[in-house]
Amino acid sequence: MKRLLLGDEALALGAIHAGLSGVYAYPGTPSTEITEFIQSDPISRERGLHSRWCTNEKTAMEAALGMSFAGKRALVCMKHVGMNVCADAFINSAITGVKGGLVVVAADDPSMHSSQNEQDSRFYGEFAMVPVLEPSTQQECYDMMAYAFDLSEELRLPVLMRLVTRLAHSRAAVAVGDCRDENPLEPDQERTRWVLLPGNAKRQYASLVAKAPEVLRRAEQSAFSSLTLGPKKGLGVVAAGIGYNYVCECHPEGVSILKVSQYPLPQEQILALAAQSSEILVVEDGQPFIETRIKSLLGADYPVTGRLTGRLPRTGELNPDHLAAAFGKAQAAPFPPALHLAARPPQLCQGCGHRDVYAVLNEVLADFPSARVFGDIGCYTLGALPPFRAIDTCVDMGASITMAKGAADAGVFPAVAVIGDSTFTHSGMTSLLDAVNDGSPITVIISDNLTTAMTGGQDSAGTHKFEAICLALGVEREHLHVVVPLPANRAEIGRIIREELAYKGVSVIIPQRECMQTLARKQRKKQAAK
Amino acid sequence: MKTDIKLAGVGGQGILTIATVIGQAATAAGLQLKQAEVHGMSQRGGAVESDLRLSDEAIYSDQIGLGTADLIVSMEPMEALRYLPYLGPKGTVVTSSAPFVNIPDYPAAEVLQADLQALPSVALLDIEGVARAQGAPKSANMVLLGMTARHLAILPPEALREAIRTIFARKGEKVVEDNLKAFDAGYEGV
Ligand SMILES: Cc1ncc(C[n+]2csc(CCOP(=O)(O)OP(=O)(O)O)c2C)c(N)n1
Q1: Position A530 pLDDT exceeds 80
Q2: Which chain A residues in 264-303 lie under 8 Å from chain B, judged by CB atoms?
Q3: Using a 6 Å cutoff on CB, does residue A165 contact ligand 1?
Q4: Cβ A169–B38 below 8 Å, yes or no?
Q5: What interhelical angle do A198-220 and A82-96 show, nearest 10?
Q6: Does one domain contain both A402 and A359?
Q7: Does the structure show a pLDDT above 90 at A528?
Q8: Strand partners, A481
Q9: Nearest CB to A114: which of B11, B40, B89?
């Protein structure tokens, strides 16, 4: 049977059909649809697979490792920067090894369509010394899942699957197969490998290192990679993931092509390609991961080109035009760019509560030219753009509170943090505890729209718990305020902000009103039900 | 035969529904298809685009190359012009003529009209106006799809009508009828 699926959805269905018992994830573009698909899939519901959102990527990774310990197959999904958050658990899961298959999906975002960087998750795979898979089509997204879970159980290692935005969010017909049973509950009996005291950890690390040749052999034998040699010695191309598609789109004649879909890099094939070629072009979407490794494998004298040499652009996602240029096949576009165009950046929705928050904050801070506002990641980051221009920083999830604290320590006054509800539970609670323990003079605004809006309105881990959380972390009752961000309440909210700016300790203000998008969605559902 | 379509609009206007209907029709007709959507940040009232590729042979790239699109289909005139460098030499622009102004520096409507009229092949219609006149104000995107059907040799209009029936069936008969009416009005260019 064929189904029209996004790369994300194909991957999700592949995992379900591979006998998955649970997906653990925190939303993040372009990975969110994997978990959403599993949440609504009939087999997943019938089997009662775990699919509820986690508080952050680290809790997701650890819960999945626990499920693997119990013998069952678990999937972890995140956007690339989530790998930074779960890195401790991820790296150490390679040291413990796994029992039930454990697959970690990292969706990279070259060109930063919705991200703050374009880090390449393949580095994490190499760092952790685990197998990495990189699909080039929706069909491979589906097919690779069963393979990945088997590989994980055979090698007793987590497997990292890396994909990029253009595959995650592109649809194609996918041939799907049958559904395997879940693994039985069979907690691992080998206790010592899970207790990473130095004595055990040394043994486990040695065993991980000893697996390296087998991990490489599996990559060299991977059915997803392929080497096609051209008729005579000339240009050789190493193409990874969707880079392979762009190469094929250009129909380069007479070139030898190595399609790389599994890492570590298949050395045997690279040496064979190099022997048959006079130069090698490396085509990879992301950072020059393969290019640097091939250079060191083949030596300084062998001509290797790619993103580092300028034959392909150093940054941003690849596209068929880059490849056409690299093959000398570029043609001038018949129509030049239009003369009259204006940029149309995204904006906060009309009626959104974040708007009221920024309107009041700007009004109050107009009287405090030395004020700095430390922002965070979510819809409310759009407050950096006109008309508000209300925040001075946005770095990583949770950084608003801790950066405000550090700046306040340095003497910045007033120091204000603006953070969303989901971001607060993701990584802001520990920051707030630091600030409380230090008695830092900061004003924290948790702009609570009762959802994780930026990624499409997923449940937010702390909904209805924020007052309790703040009090428990030690915020004083009289410096904790819950308000409703509406134009009619702006004067009142402004008065509270002014008072709290004057307080020489931690204050928290929680403007709380439902997101316009989730509200409209609920109303549409109600209407449809009628 | 191969058809590459660049879909454009503003977040929330419903370009992905157009892609879904064409995708359904193409799949039913046994064509290969790739459709790259835009999710996330760009949906909040910003410019959105989607690449839709149909073919009776294998399709490799999920993205359309510069100067190769057969069609630019847009819910909004300035958004149609934004992707002009992607249009192939024989390509057609099918677009709504009514500006969606949510930014301060939006160009004058007449200037955009003139830029569009200067193209060798363009179809322009006030799709919201047509949808309203048909008593189907929420179906402007299906008016645009109807206009597109005139230029979509790879799929007959009946295949698209059938796809509309399939896609909207779960929303009830009235929604299906409204969308078909809107599609036909766009197809007839009224
Ligand atoms: C480590 C990490 N994980 C996930 C994301 C993706 N992401 C960006 S904003 C956001 C949601 C923020 O939700 P919330 O704080 O409630 O703000 P809202 O968008 O609802 O205003 C997510 C999940 C990210 N940028 N970084």
Answers
A1: no
A2: none
A3: no
A4: yes
A5: 100
A6: yes
A7: no
A8: A509
A9: B40
pLDDT of residue B41: 59
Question: Does A430 share its domain with A490?
Answer: yes
Q: Is A169 on the interface with B (CB under 8 A)?
A: yes
Domain presence at residue A526: no
Q: Are residues A367 and A514 in the same domain?
A: yes
Q: Name the minimum distance, in Å, from the CA of A209 to any CA of chain B.
A: 38
Do residues A77 and A23 touch, judged by C-beta distance below 8 A? yes
What's the pLDDT at B14?
A: 86
Task: Say whether both A413 and A431 belong to one domain.
Answer: yes
CA of A398 to the centre of ligand 1 (A): 10
Tell me, yes or no, whether A379 and A310 share the same domain. no
- What is the domain extent for residue A276? 226-326
The B residues from 34 to 53 touching A (CB cutoff 8 Å) are 34-47, 51
The upper half-sphere exposure of residue A135, i.e. CA atoms within 13 Å in the direction of its Cβ, equals 30
Residue A43 covered by a domain: yes
Q: Is residue A347 part of a domain?
A: no
Question: Which of B27, B67, B108 lies at the smallest CB-CB distance from A334?
Answer: B67
Q: In terms of CATH, what superfamily is B2-99+119-189?
A: Pyruvate-ferredoxin oxidoreductase, PFOR, domain III (3.40.920.10)
The three-state secondary structure class of A120 is coil
Cβ–Cβ below 8 Å for A335 and B46: no
How many domains would you assign to chain A? 3
Residue B159 pLDDT: 98
**Domain containing residue A307: CATH number:** 3.40.50.920
Phi/psi for B181 (5° steps) reads -60, -45
pTM, full prediction: 0.97
In a domain, A335, yes or no: no
Question: In terms of residues, how long is chain B?
Answer: 190
Kindly report the number of other CB atoms within 10 A of residue A103's CB atom.
30
Top-confidence residue, B37 or A159: A159
pLDDT digits (tens, 9 = 90+) for A283-308: 999 999 999 999 999 999 999 999 99
**Minimum CA–CA partner of B113 in chain A:** A340
Asked whether the predicted pLDDT for residue B43 surpasses 70, the reply is: no
The gap from C-alpha A91 to its chain's centroid, in whole angstroms, comes to: 16
Does B171 contact A at CB distance below 8 Å?
A: yes
The residue whose C-alpha atom lies closest to atom 9 belonging to ligand 1 is A378
Tell whether ligand 1 has an atom less than 6 A from the beta carbon of residue A68.
no
Q: How many CA atoms lie within 13 A of A341 on its CB side?
A: 16
Amino acid letter, A216: L
With an 8 Å Cβ cutoff, are A166 and B36 in contact? yes
Q: What is the mean pLDDT of residues A34-51?
A: 98
Among chain A residues, the shortest Cα distance to B25 is held by A4
Residues A244, A180, single domain; the answer is: no
**Cα B64 vs. chain centroid, distance in angstroms?**
15
Cα–Cα dist B136/B127, whole Å: 11
Q: pLDDT tens digit string along A230-266?
A: 999 999 999 999 999 999 999 999 999 999 999 999 9
ipTM, two decimals, is 0.94
Specify the amino acid at residue A18.
Answer: A
Per-residue pLDDT reduced to its tens digit, B144-180:
999 999 999 999 999 999 999 999 999 999 999 999 9
Closest C-alpha among A401, A390, A381 to residue A360: A390
Closest chain B residue to the Cα of A339, Cα to Cα: B115
